[in-house]
Amino acid sequence: MTAPTTDTALMPFDDVLAAYDPALGLEVHVELNTASKMFCGCPAVFGGEPNAGVCPTCLGLPGAMPVVNGKAVESAIRIGLALNCEIAEWCRFARKNYFYPDMPKNFQTSQYDEPICFDGFMDVEVEGTTYRVEIERAHMEEDTGKSLHVGGSTGRIHGADHSLVDYNRAGIPLIEIVTRPILGAGEKAPEVAKAYVAQLRELIVALGVSEARMDQGNLRADVNLSLSPKGSGTLGTRTETKNVNSFRSVERAVRYEMQRHAAILSGGGTILQETRHWHEDTGITTSGRVKSDAEDYRYFPEPDLVPVAPSREWVEELRGTLPENPTVRRSRLQAEWGFSDLEMRDTVGAGALGLVEETIAEGAAPQAARKWWLGELARRSNEDGVDLVDLPITPADVARIQALVDEKVVNDKLARQVFEGVLAGEGTPDEVVEKRGLAVVSDDGALGAAVDNAIAANPDVADKIRDGKHAAAGALIGAVMKEMRGQADAGRVRELILEKLA
Amino acid sequence: MTEIVRSTAAALAERLAAGEVTSTELTEAHLDRIDAVDGAVHAFLHVDRDGALADAAESDARRARGEARGPLDGVPIAVKDVLTTRGLPTTCGSRILEGWIPPYDATVVTRLREAGLPILGKTNMDEFAMGSSTEHSAYGPTRNPWDLDRIPGGSGGGSAAAVAAFEAPLAIGTDTGGSIRQPGAVTGTVGVKPTYGGVSRYGLVALANSLDQAGPVTRTVLDAAMLHDVIGGHDPRDSTSIAQEWPSFTEAARAGSTGDMTGVKVGVITELAGEGWQPGVMARFQESVDLLVKAGAEVVEVSCPSFVHALAAYYLILPAEASSNLAKFDAMRFGLRVVPDGDPSAEEVMRATRDAGFGDEVKRRIILGTYALSSGYYDAYYGQAQKIRTLISRDFDAAFGSVDVLVSPTAPTTAFRLGEKLDDPMAMYLNDLATIPANLAGVPGISVPNGLADEDGLPSGFQVLAPALADDRVYRVGAALEAMYAEQWGGLLLDRAPGLETE
């Protein structure tokens, strides 16, 4: 076990591109939000008391048998259709055999050479250029249990004192979406990877088939990367970086692996075909398991399940339930919101399209919604190193804070404190305003006294205003705000000053 | 031995209905019989005296209230130890499940309970149903009530011996390649493998999922039909279970027992005879065919050329599925756990447990199956085996295009001696030559006792196979043959079995 270190040799990014062409591949696991698990009636809810949501089937007890969850098949088909895939007329589940303590049967019921969805694509836009990402397949499978390795320094099984396994997650339906190698992205490879995952998430949210929260593991990305000598048209040896769990990490992991591969290759070394672990904190990958040809999952068709054969009528019926195509949707939203091209591109690039849309749906004006998500909240997400969607604040919260501004309960400056409170888990926007005492004072009695004090303390400014120089009111407003610790309705203060000095 | 344990289940059902006997009396009589003879026979791995008597008392109370749940309410039964029973040990004849008490009932067991049959206990079997002699049980072999030095067949030797030794009027077996029918043949009892999907497999600890099927083990064809009516039918917990209404098999058996076979076309399978088939077994088979002709059946010879490859295909498909099924026995969640000295990893615990918990035959098949599924070998072995399976199904389809049922001897020989074939797996495997094709094609089959072989005076069996879904035909033809023999013999073949009483 190599401890995470940062002394790995890296080649400067621009030098990588001068010598090599990157080939990208992404495998994304989507945890479906069906009521029950993939093959049994247990609730498909992870968390809660460990091993409470289990039955003989998802525990892999002797004699228990699987039954396919029809709703999961429906979700798989809808995802496939949204990704422009063909839907198999007939397909089977297969057993992927390998031993691991958190896998109840020591085989995963998955799909092998007969995926339910295949041969699709998704167009991804990065800075005005469209990249077509080809989808090789999207297939159904079940999740494993979750191991907690107690003791030891790494939190991994080797070196742990003991391990605990929670099987609540075992059997939760997953859809694995696999791309073909993405070639020709060049210097934009990291951004294309990020944009693909972000747009895929947007699609999954629009389909309503998953909670799609990367920080909760509802959406998990594995990043495959290889380099080949520039212009050679070949494919190099790839590494597979597992469980990269945010958009920005996807981008960083691609960038890191490109630089690491290039350093090794340019030094005459060879890339080991292996899985690698991503370290969110240090932004590096470390060696995991070596994937050799010896790894043999002994796939064969699951004999306990009959083939899945979705009728063409059903598939067409499901096609009718698809959300709008992402490109069409963007054009529509841009027109509806009146965003400039640049504003739209920034919104999409920040992964904020869905968030802005939801915020507007909750009642905020488009520019206000954009301002908060791309301003205050984007700043926070950068500082905290998390994606916007993973910030502990909802579009409804953002819309409510804007409403508080519109209702003049808070001003912009106080609104930032409300954001801070909500992000700190102090409650809803209204609760934060209440607890922190942030509401601006627009009550004439309280404000009047402060205005009087300000006039008394600044006689020469007051004289200027009396002489009609209304612009000078700013100095008095500032004095009032200072006395009121910022919690005054600036507009009302101005009115009061002008009334009193009329 | 009280006379009551010699009754057929159908007769017991009548006596219960007439109020001549109580379920408690019946159940006690069988438990006493088990006490008396099972030391010698070893048909049971676990006897649930208290549970069975409690079930019997409830049955009696129900009947007293006029709420009996069906004809077999109160008739006790034995269950092969490969079906899960809530609160009762289930070992599959393996050390690796020693001490495991399942938290749930198999669907077959649920249906038995719902129909009011007290469960006497769990019967012995070859470990994970791998074998044809019950010698591969980790808990010691079961002995054939006809001759205690001989095997009772397998893997369900426990269920067949329990019925043959009058320890239970009814039993449940499971049949993957003949494990119900072959023990039936060598113990002089009746065994039925239903159409694949006819009886739920939920709770049946899988040997080979695509071949396994639970079914009745009884002393008469009518008893088997009555039991089949209780355990059969669609189960949403088993995806491979057939969703359709089934005809009454009890009625089919009653119709057959008139002995009239007029208009029935019977095909004798050419490939299931010849070298290696015991002359006494073949002689009895020919007599049975002659009887069917006498009863009005039209008999023709039918060739099923692919059947000669059935054994080879079976011994690839079965180990492949089994190697994967048995992976779950890893000491993590249930059953045996062997912890090596020192500070072992999870992998080391798994390895040590599987090494200590599985017997040699199980390990042999795990290795075979793992090999057959390996990358680079899959097409040559598993893939080819599946093709043979398709060819065998086609042979059946073609045959059933011209005949109503196919017949053969159930097993090539009568019961062999304990230990005789233990060191020769191939010889052991050959015992299932005639029964395996039905499992590969998913069609139903029955074995009916058809006399004693001249060489050794031991029972032989007559197999009747029908197209998938046409289980009623095997009951009809089986009951007809049984009725003709009953007339000839003045009773059942088992009436001629030697007594087991030591007193």
UniProtKB/TrEMBL annotation, chain A:
Its EC number is 6.3.5.-. It comes from the Bacteria. Residues 354-501 form the Asn/Gln amidotransferase domain. GO terms for biological process: glutaminyl-tRNAGln biosynthesis via transamidation; translation. Keywords: ATP-binding, Ligase, Nucleotide-binding, Protein biosynthesis, Transferase. Belongs to the GatB/GatE family. GatB subfamily. Allows the formation of correctly charged Asn-tRNA(Asn) or Gln-tRNA(Gln) through the transamidation of misacylated Asp-tRNA(Asn) or Glu-tRNA(Gln) in organisms which lack either or both of asparaginyl-tRNA or glutaminyl-tRNA synthetases. The reaction takes place in the presence of glutamine and ATP through an activated phospho-Asp-tRNA(Asn) or phospho-Glu-tRNA(Gln). This is Aspartyl/glutamyl-tRNA(Asn/Gln) amidotransferase subunit B. It comes from Nocardioides ganghwensis.
UniProtKB/TrEMBL annotation, chain B:
The keyword Ligase applies. It is an enzyme of class 6 (ligase). Its EC number is 6.3.5.7. Pfam families: Amidase. Allows the formation of correctly charged Gln-tRNA(Gln) through the transamidation of misacylated Glu-tRNA(Gln) in organisms which lack glutaminyl-tRNA synthetase. The reaction takes place in the presence of glutamine and ATP through an activated gamma-phospho-Glu-tRNA(Gln). Belongs to the amidase family. GatA subfamily. This is Glutamyl-tRNA(Gln) amidotransferase subunit A. It comes from Nocardioides ganghwensis.
